[in-house]
Structures are given as structure tokens and as C-alpha cells.
Design brief:
Elements: E1 6-11, E2 14-19, H1 30-41, E3 49-54, H2 73-91, E4 97-101, E5 104-106, H3 108-115, E6 118-122, E7 126-128, H4 131-134, H5 142-150, H6 152-161, E8 165-166, H7 167-173, E9 178-180, H8 185-197, H9 201-216, H10 219-235, H11 237-247
Parallel strand pairs: 2-3, 3-4, 4-6, 5-7, 6-9
Antiparallel strand pairs: 1-2, 7-8
The protein binds 3-methylmercaptopropionate-CoA (MMPA-CoA).
Length: about 260
């Protein structure tokens, strides 16, 4: 589980997972991708949410291009499937993951960010998919996840023209749900993780696992899946306690935004 380019820290019930390869702009080597996979596989049961961020001036420069050797088609496919398996653990792991973005969020770095559940970007963030100009293709699930954030037309444009989105345009396009001043993405991500960690774990799990699947289902199946999850969630002891807390005046009301 230990890898020199990945630092894992537990702060109460939040796991902070940091790419620590700043000198190489947190480029994702095969070893680092496998370490990420293992990190999400082995989170302690006490963890309720995770924050992922990157050391140095950039969140992540994507695939480690120095490792791109001569691969045949089968090896290339398996390499991509390895990324899929690792980022699947991020998206469909045990707890919600909040990405704290800054600087470059490019190529595989954007694929990693798009596997997270919430993205907080600071004002220095920029997004790009240089694969188009490097003669390669996305291979870390980007063609599935990124259009869900920004639409297929914007992704096509990015890959065809090398277009780079700055932090503000990126937030408007749908890359990030939060845009914060430079240098504050981690603090905001941690604050959100602490808020997320207060929810019933079953609700968080249901949200992460059910919502993206329901989005893929025909409406009739989606309604049915929703009813199953609704039934399971409301039958949990935690739901009963929380509802009683509200009805008896012990729980916070929703505040006007
Ligand atoms: C790297 C990588 C990398 C930096 N692989 N070594 N990704 C890309 O095409 C993006 C390539 N990187 C860049 O465009 C720039 O490095 C950045 C905009 C991210 C940052 O620029 P800068 O000026 O801050 O840093 P730098 O001087 O370019 O890089 C510092 C060092 O990191 C340098 O090594 P050094 O030994 O000369 O110090 C760089 O070579 C190294 N470095 N990025 C390897 N990506 C599952 S498929 C996914 C497909 C993709 O992700 S393709 C997109 C790859």
C-alpha cells in the first residue's frame, strides 16, 4: 500500500490522499495508479469521506508520458483497463471523494478528478485534454465520465483543438461544483468532507452508487431502482433517529441560501 508518491493521512474520520510527486507535476505512473487503487481498497472502516489533492503547483499532469513505451494493442488495452479498475475504486469505493484542484488538471489528471464526487477548484486551475495533440486517446475513463460533466461537444472540442479552460470558464462548463480563491481549494474540500461525513453513511453510499447507475437506466428502471434505495435508506435505524430528531426539534432546519 505504501508508495513514495502517495501520502495518506487520517484526520479524524476523513482520509486525505495526496499525490506527492510535485517535481513531476504529479504525473501518474503505473505504480502510482496502482497505489491509488490500493489506497481506496484499504481505507479503514472509520473513514467517512476522502479528500484528494496534489503537491506543488499543479494537481496532476496526467499519464506519466515517460512510461509510454512501445506497447502492442493488447498491452495498451490492458493498461487502460488498469486505470479503469483504479478509478472505479475512487468513484465506487466506500466513501465520497472530494477533489481539491489547482493548476493543471490535464489528461489523466482530469480523468482522476472526474471520478471524484465533488470537485473544488481554486482560481489557478486549468483543464485540458492534450491527448488529442499527442496522438493518443483518453484511457482512464475520460470518454465516459467527462461528457457527463461538460457534454460530449465540449470534450470533442478540447481534444480536437487543444482548448484549455480556465478556472472560471471551467466552473461554468461543469468541471467543478465549487470555485474558490487561489490557495484555498484544500481547505474548502476538507470543510465539505467534514460536512459530508456527518450524513448517514448509508445515504452517502446510496448516493454514490445509485445516482450514476440510475442516470444510465431507462426512466422506468430508474424509478424502480430509486424506490429500492429509498426503501432501504428509510428503513435504517439511523434514518429513524434523524427523522425523530427533526420532528422533536433537535435537528437543524434548512437555512435560506
Ligand atoms: C511529466 C509530465 C507527464 C510534466 N509525464 N513527466 N499529459 C500532458 O501531456 C501534460 C504534460 N505536462 C505539461 O504540459 C506541463 O508539464 C504542465 C502544464 C503540467 C506543467 O508545466 P510546468 O512548466 O509547471 O512544469 P514542467 O517544467 O513542464 O514539468 C516539470 C517536470 O515534470 C519535467 O521533468 P524534468 O525532469 O524536466 O524536471 C516534466 O518533464 C515532468 N512532467 N508532466 C511525465 N505527464 C490513461 S490515459 C491518460 C492520457 C494522458 O494523461 S495524456 C496527457 C499527458
Amino acid at each position: 500500500m505504501n508508495h513514495p508518491d502517495l501520502h495518506i493521512e487520517l484526520r479524524d474520520n476523513i482520509a486525505i490522499i495526496r499525490l506527492t510527486r510535485g517535481a513531476k507535476r504529479n504525473a501518474l505512473s503505473d505504480g502510482l495508479i496502482l497505489a491509488l487503487r490500493d489506497a481506496f481498497d484499504n481505507l479503514p472502516d472509520t473513514v467517512r469521506a476522502a479528500v484528494i489533492d496534489g503537491e506543488g503547483p499543479h494537481f496532476c499532469a496526467g499519464l506519466d508520458l515517460s512510461e509510454l513505451q512501445e506497447r502492442d494493442a493488447g498491452q495498451g488495452m490492458r493498461h487502460s483497463r488498469m486505470w479503469h479498475a483504479a478509478l472505479e475504486r475512487v468513484q465506487y469505493g466506500p466513501v465520497p471523494v472530494i477533489a481539491a484542484l489547482h493548476g493543471a488538471v490535464v489528461g489523466g489528471g482530469l480523468e482522476l478528478a472526474s471520478a471524484c464526487h465533488i470537485r473544488v477548484a481554486d482560481a489557478s486551475t486549468f483543464y485540458a485534454l492534450p491527448e488529442g495533440s499527442r496522438g493518443i486517446f483518453v484511457g482512464g475513463g475520460g470518454s465516459v465520465r467527462i461528457p457527463k460533466l461538460i457534454g460530449a461537444a465540449r470534450m470533442t472540442d478540447m481534444m480536437l483543438t487543444g482548448r484549455v479552460y480556465n478556472a472560471e470558464d471551467g466552473e461554468r462548463a461543469g468541471f467543478a461544483q465549487y470555485l474558490v480563491p487561489e490557495g484555498t481549494a484544500f481547505d474548502k474540500a476538507l470543510e465539505l468532507a467534514q460536512r459530508v461525513a456527518e450524513n448517514a453513511p448509508l445515504t452517502n453510499y446510496a448516493l454514490m452508487h445509485a445516482l450514476p447507475r440510475i442516470a444510465e437506466q431507462p426512466a422506468d428502471h430508474g424509478f424502480f431502482t430509486e424506490s429500492l434505495i429509498a426503501g432501504i435508506a428509510q428503513a435504517s435505524p439511523e434514518a429513524k433517529t434523524r427523522l425523530a430528531d427533526f420532528l422533536e426539534g433537535r435537528a437543524a432546519k434548512v437555512q435560506k441560501a
